[in-house]
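Discussion board: Methods & Data

I've been asked by a reviewer to show the raw model output for two of the constructs in my manuscript, not just the figures. I'm not sure how much to include, so I'm pasting the format here to get opinions. Each protein appears as its amino acid sequence followed by a line of C-alpha cells. Is this the kind of thing reviewers expect to see in a supplement, or should I convert it first? Here is construct A:
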Amino acid sequence: MKTEVTTRTITCDACGGECEPVGRFSVVVGHDREFVREIVFDVRLVSPYQTDDGDVCDACLRKALEYRLRTGASGRDLKPTCWERGVSEPARETMRCLGAFGPTLAERDREVKGWLNDGESGASSVYWSSGRLRAMAAHFVEVADWLDRRAETADDADRDR
C-alpha cells in the first residue's frame, strides 16, 4: 500500500504569502490527575474588510504572538518598563517580598506599584516613587547599622559576665 502525503497551501491573509495555514493549536498549561488542561487557539485573521477566509501563516502568527507577549494586555510596548533587563534578580526579589512591587507603565512617573497589607481591609495598592525608594534604602541601612550595634553591645555584655 502506497501512502501519499499532501499539504494544503493557502494565501496568508495577513502577509499575502503562499504557505500552510496554522488553523488550530494548543498549549498545555497543566495536568489534573488524568486530565490535561490546555489553552486552544483557533487562528484566523479578522479584518473590517474581510473578503477571504482569514488564513494565517506561521510567520505572521509568531510575529503577532511576540508582539502581544511584549506589549501585554495594554497593547503598549512594555520594553521600557521590563526591568528584567535593567534590575538584578536579587533586587527584583526584594521588591516582590516587600509587596509584589513592579514598575508602572507610565515611565515618566518613576514609580513602582505594589500591594501592602493595611490591616483591616486587607491588601491595598501602593505607589512608591524613585525618591521614596532612595529614602527607604537609607532607612534600611540605618536599621541594619542599628542591628549590628545592638549585636555588638550584646556580645560585649556577654564577655563582661
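Construct B, same format:
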Amino acid sequence: MKSWLQRVCLVPRIRIRNRVRRFRCSPVAVYAVGCSPEESDQIRTVVQSDVHRLIARIKAYTDAAGNIRPLRVLCFGRSVGLNAVPSYAARHVDRNRASGVWIRELRAAIALFSDSLSIRQIVTHELAHGLLDVMTDGFPYPMAIQEGVACAMQNIVCAGNPREDAQSGDEVSAVRSERYLDGDYCMSAKELLLDPRGYWTCGSEQLPRMTFLSFWLNAYLARLSRAQPVLRKLPASLRADNVRTREGVYRWLLEASAMTEEEFERGFRGFCTTGEIDGQPE
C-alpha cells in the first residue's frame, strides 16, 4: 500500500501545470501531462458520451450499485513519457509492450501515446480496468478476465456500436472485425487463465499475445452465453459465487458452460481459428 503522501501528491502536482478534461455527472477526470497541442487535441476525442456509455456498460456487466468514487486518467505526452511519472507508479508500466496501466493504490490510470492505438482507445481500455476494479471493490478476477472485459469495452465504445440491448451480442460482433487466428498463436483457455508460465508478468514478451487471446476468450464466453445465460454477466456471476482463484474460475466456467474440459477447449480453439463452435458457424 502506498503512503498517504504518495497517493495524494501525484495528481495535484500535475494539475497545476496541465489541462484537465472533466465530464459532467461523471467521476472521471482526464489529465494531459506534458502533451503537445496536437496530443491535447487527440485527448479531446475522449468525449463525454464515451465515458457515460462505458460506465453504464460496466455497471450492467457487474451488477454494481451506488455511486463511484472519483478516478483519474493521466495521459503522458511523447516528449515526457514515463520520465514524468514518479518511480513508484512507473514501475507498473511495461515501457516496451504496454500503452497504459491501472494503478489501484492511486485510483488512477496511466496512458501513454502509442503508434498502434489511438489515445481514445487507450484511455477507454484503462478506464474499463479502473471501473471494473472500483465497481467490484477490487474483486480478484484473473488477468485474462480483466483484459477480456477491457478489450471488449474498448472495441464496443470506440467502434460506436449502437447495440446496447444484448450483453453478448456486442462482444461477438466486435470479433467479426478481427482476422481469425493461426493455430500456433492460440493457447488453451486453461493456460490463458492459470498462466503456469508467468506470461502475465510485467516485462513478458508474451503480454500482447495474452491480451489479444483474452479478447477472444471473452467473445467465446459471450457466444456461449446465448445458451448459458449465467455467462452473460460474467464478472457479476463470479462475484456472486465468490470465485476468487484462477483454478476456481476455470472450474466454474466448465460447470457454467455445461461442457467437459475437452469440449470447452476444442470450442475455444475452433472459435479462434474458424469462428465455429461444434461445427456451427458464428
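Answer (T.O., handling editor elsewhere):
This is acceptable in a supplement if you add a one-line summary per construct. For B, something like: The chain has twelve helices and seven strands.
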